[in-house]
């Protein structure tokens, strides 16, 4: 199902909640989650893997035939600024923030610790938010006189499904 083409009743409940939470966060921040931004966010949240800007553009064109690259890039910049998505640098692609669908009332400043686990074989990417990892990194940095501001950790390996396959069946 492509979000934006059907009614709200056709949208999966979890996605509808995430979009409502995102809209509430934007309103609290004095920002507007326009229909276009909402469509791009929905596409990112629905994706099974991180999506690059041009893959998003291709999907968006199903809903907005005249969409152009600047349209997607402006929407992505807004969504990043609002803390609704993350950019996975290693893949040059975007994923929804694990906190994006939650309306915390007081807001979420998007500086929560986040780490990405990227499967080398199938490409699945999972965001975890483990404060212990962030503390370990900050402690290691402090030992050499460095103070960490924000950190994104991207770890390559194999997801549970790919790790259990015989080596000859794996693509990497």
The CATH architecture name of the largest domain reads Orthogonal Bundle
Strand order of the largest sheet: 4-3-5
Average of the residue pLDDT scores: 86
Q: Which shape, going by the Cα principal axes?
A: globular
Q: CATH topology of the largest domain, which one?
A: Arc Repressor Mutant, subunit A
Query: In the CATH hierarchy, what is the superfamily of the largest domain?
Result: Winged helix-like DNA-binding domain superfamily/Winged helix DNA-binding domain
Helices and strands: which structural class? alpha+beta
Could you tell me the radius of gyration in angstroms? 18 Å
Q: Strand-and-helix sequence, N→C?
A: HHHHEEEEHEH
The overall number of domains is 2
- How many separate helices? 6
The helicity comes to: 25-40%
Which regions have little confidence, pLDDT < 50, spanning 5+ residues?
A: 1-9, 102-109
Classified by CATH, the class of the largest domain is Mainly Alpha
Percent in strands = 5-15%
Number of DSSP-assigned strands: 5
Largest sheet, described in full?
Answer: 3 strands, mixed
Tell me about this structure.
A hairpin with a 4-residue loop joins strand 1 and strand 2. Helix 2 crosses helix 4. 38% of the residues lie in helices and 14% in strands. It is built from 6 helices and 5 strands. It folds into 2 domains: 1-104, Winged helix-like DNA-binding domain superfamily/Winged helix DNA-binding domain (Arc Repressor Mutant, subunit A), CATH 1.10.10.10; 111-172, Dna Ligase, domain 1. The longest helix is centred in the first third of the chain and has 16 residues, at 13-28. It has 172 residues and is an alpha+beta fold. Residues 1-9 and 102-109 have low confidence and may be disordered. The chain has helices spanning 13-28, 35-46, 53-60, 69-81, 131-143, 160-163; strands spanning 85-88, 93-96, 114-119, 125-128, 152-157. The strands form 2 sheets. A 3-stranded mixed beta sheet has the order 4-3-5, with helices on one face. Strands 1-2 form a two-stranded antiparallel ribbon. The protein is globular.
């Amino acid at each position: 199902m492509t979000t934006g083409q059907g009614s709200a009743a056709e949208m999966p409940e979890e996605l509808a909640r995430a979009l409502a939470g995102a809209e509430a966060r934007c309103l609290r921040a004095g920002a507007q989650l326009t229909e276009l931004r909402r469509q791009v966010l929905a596409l990112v949240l629905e994706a099974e893997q991180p999506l690059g800007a041009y893959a998003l553009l291709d999907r968006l064109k199903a809903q907005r035939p005249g969409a152009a690259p600047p349209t997607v890039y402006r929407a992505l910049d807004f969504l990043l600024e609002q803390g609704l998505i993350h950019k996975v640098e290693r893949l040059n692609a975007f994923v929804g923030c694990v906190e994006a669908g939650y309306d915390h009332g007081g807001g979420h400043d998007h500086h929560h610790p986040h780490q990405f686990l990227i499967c080398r074989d199938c490409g699945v990417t999972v965001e975890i938010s483990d404060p212990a990892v962030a503390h370990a990194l900050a402690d290691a940095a402090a030992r050499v006189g460095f103070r960490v501001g924000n950190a994104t950790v991207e770890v390559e390996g194999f997801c549970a499904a790919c790790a259990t396959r015989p080596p000859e069946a794996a693509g990497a």
